[in-house]
What we know:
The chain is mainly alpha-helical and 170 residues long. It has helices spanning 33-39, 49-52, 54-59, 62-65, 76-82, 89-93, 95-105, 117-141, 145-169; strands spanning 16-22, 25-31. A two-stranded antiparallel ribbon has the order 1-2. Mean pLDDT is 76; it is low at 43-60.
Amino acid sequence: MGQNLKCSNCDNPATVHLTQIISNKIIKVDLCESCAQAKGVMDQQGFSLGDLLSEANEMVPSEGKALQCPQCGLKATDFRRTGRLGCAACFAIFSPLLRPVLEDMHVGTCHKGKTPEVALNRQSAFARLEKLEDALAEAISNEAYEDAAKYRDQIRSLKENSASLEYSQS
């Protein structure tokens, strides 16, 4: 940061700078080391952004503030203070609080994963091969031998290309 910022709580120089984006609103907090430690930002157990960003608490619906996990007993206020869930059941219980945050942070809330390019190429080649084999069988049953010969040649070419691809990738 180019300029010397002052702590949001006192007039000391800020050395800890936090930025959080909630519902397309940027919330910035600048703290000195002592205030950051007092707020729990610099503890060994992780961040405690809930205390610092009081504006985030105002955005949570009132019904979300009374939530408590029946399995571990974690309350919504404790979750907001520590930023940590207590058990696996907390994900379902605190979903009204988690969903908006996850939607703001990521493209969606459902993990779709990635497929390697090699696997995609192999998959599309396999699908094309199946279509050609079906078309070949249909051409033979319809006695369209010229079309069948074209399909046969395309199948042969596709198999040779996929074999050379597999050989070069291994």
